[in-house]
Specification:
Nucleotidyltransferase, domain 5
């Protein structure tokens, strides 16, 4: 009788250390971690085809490469697109994960290709920690780019706002910018950030300027706040303080205002294109049916998730976002409550944590999780939100995989309306104020203060007794 033996599939692991202004370094290993070949390449079709041929030399037809690289600037995309289009598995790993393994190899090995070799070994060392990269196409690709552009512009706008407030606080120590920067504030600062110019303009013309910029929402009262701040600055510095560069600081403020205005205009255009791409990628707007994921969060998480089927289950997606706790096992011990891994895209993680703060106020099941963490597990607000965010990620994956809207439910599984959900939360899952206050305190508990001991004088010391077999012990001089 012939016994058929199942052949072990041949593996080829390719680690590529991407170069920005130099050639890419490639190391190819087999399934046992032995070196197969080494090469260098550039992001051209001919060069990458040559690498593919060398890596697959001697393997059965149909063998797929497992290509691993770090997201080094924009250099990763041409390589990823080439190998994914050729049917190979492509993995993009975080720099932190690769750096940890690289430290070990560098301690024991000295090689120019150590970075590429390290990346090639990751599928052997941490196979569960790798998620195959799926490049978005069509409307999904457009959504991905618009989401990234909006996020980047939003961060830039926030930095300019912070800079403006800092400069104004120097010009006007009694700053009128207590809250968000409005259009009226920007209109004033673009031309009259110098307190001397503000006082010269006068309350009447300033009121007209503010009323026009705010479309009638603010007027004389707001103008008086600016005038008072300008007068307080002049009283403090004086009109001709040689150390106070009024005009130069005002010019810098005006530059920051113009940059902010330009960024906000660009952001508005990208946001409109993002909405158009989202409507075509997620026609049912499933992502937006989850509590906390609204106009911005829904498109962002749709772009980050991509095809939900590429994740084995919701826990895989949760781990991909870095919302799963780190594993800490030794012997028979499995520690719980470890910090989040923080792997994966930071935008997705931040979006889910922000959404969780709203979701806990709208969804009874998520509210009960938050309540339990705060009242029974000793978690503070942020830690409880991170745990809620992990559960919200599970629900998002399930809803997107089923392509069905999310349904609010009570803790027993009964569907509820938004109004009923708020009533249930108010009645059963509202964290008491005293608990929230205790969790907010960061003071460390310690021993009660003790009274200082009275210094002991030499004359107060008892005379040492003699020991058997010895004479009396003499005190030291």
């Amino acid at each position: 009788m012939n016994v058929q033996v199942n052949e072990v599939p041949v593996r080829r692991l390719a680690g590529i250390d991407l170069g920005i202004a130099s050639e890419h370094t490639v190391r190819v290993l087999d399934g046992a971690g032995q070196k197969v070949t080494a090469a260098r390449c550039v992001p051209s079709r001919e060069s990458l085809l040559a690498v593919e041929a060398r890596a697959l030399a001697g393997t059965p037809e149909g063998t797929r490469l497992e290509v691993v690289f770090e997201p080094t600037g924009p250099a990763w995309f041409p390589v990823a697109r080439f190998f994914s289009a050729r049917g190979h598995k492509v993995f993009r790993v975080s720099s932190a994960k690769a750096a940890d393994l690289r430290k070990f190899y560098r301690r024991h090995t000295k090689s120019n290709g150590i970075d590429a070799d390290t990346l090639a070994r990751l599928p052997l060392v941490d196979p569960r920690g790798l998620t195959e990269l799926t490049l978005a196409e069509g409307h999904a690709a457009a959504l991905d780019r618009r989401v990234r552009a909006c996020d980047r512009l939003t961060q830039q706008a926030a930095r300019h706002k912070t800079r403006i407030k800092g400069l104004v606080r120097q010009l006007l120590p009694m700053t009128p910018l207590a809250g968000d920067l409005g259009k009226a504030d920007l209109a004033v600062l673009e031309r009259y950030a110098d307190p001397r110019a503000l006082l010269h303009l006068g309350p009447g013309k300033l009121t007209t300027l503010i009323s026009k910029a705010s479309r009638g929402n603010h007027g004389q009262a707001r103008a008086q706040v600016w005038i008072s701040a300008a007068q307080a600055a002049i009283d403090l510095y004086g009109p001709d303080d040689p150390a106070m560069a009024y005009a130069d600081l005002a010019a810098e403020v005006a530059t920051e205002v113009r940059l902010l205005t330009t960024i906000e205009a660009e952001l508005k255009a990208h946001a409109a294109a993002r909405e158009d791409a989202y409507q075509k990628t997620d026609p049912g707007q499933i992502a937006r049916t989850l509590p906390g994921l609204g106009e911005i969060g829904g498109p962002a998480m749709t772009a980050i998730m991509g095809d939900p089927a590429r994740f084995g289950d919701g826990h895989h997606f949760k781990s991909y976002l870095g919302l799963a706790p780190k594993a800490s096992e030794t012997g028979d011990t499995d520690r719980k409550g470890e910090p989040m891994s923080k792997a994966g895209p930071s935008l997705g993680r931040v979006t889910m944590i922000r959404a969780a703060d709203t979701a806990r106020k709208l969804d009874p099941q998520l509210a009960s999780i938050y309540y339990t963490q705060m009242t029974e597990r000793g978690a503070n607000h942020l830690k409880a939100l991170c745990i809620v965010a992990g559960h919200l990620a599970l629900r998002l994956h399930a809803a997107m995989l089923r392509a069905s809207p999310y349904q609010l439910r009570d803790t027993d599984g009964t569907p509820v309306t938004p109004e009923q959900a708020r009533q249930v939360i108010a009645a059963n899952w509202t964290v008491p104020d005293d608990v929230r206050t205790r969790r907010r305190s960061r003071k460390k508990k310690g021993k009660a203060p003790q009274q200082a001991r009275k210094p002991v004088q030499r004359g107060d010391l008892p005379r040492p007794a003699s020991r058997p077999g010895h004479g009396p012990v003499k005190p030291a001089p």
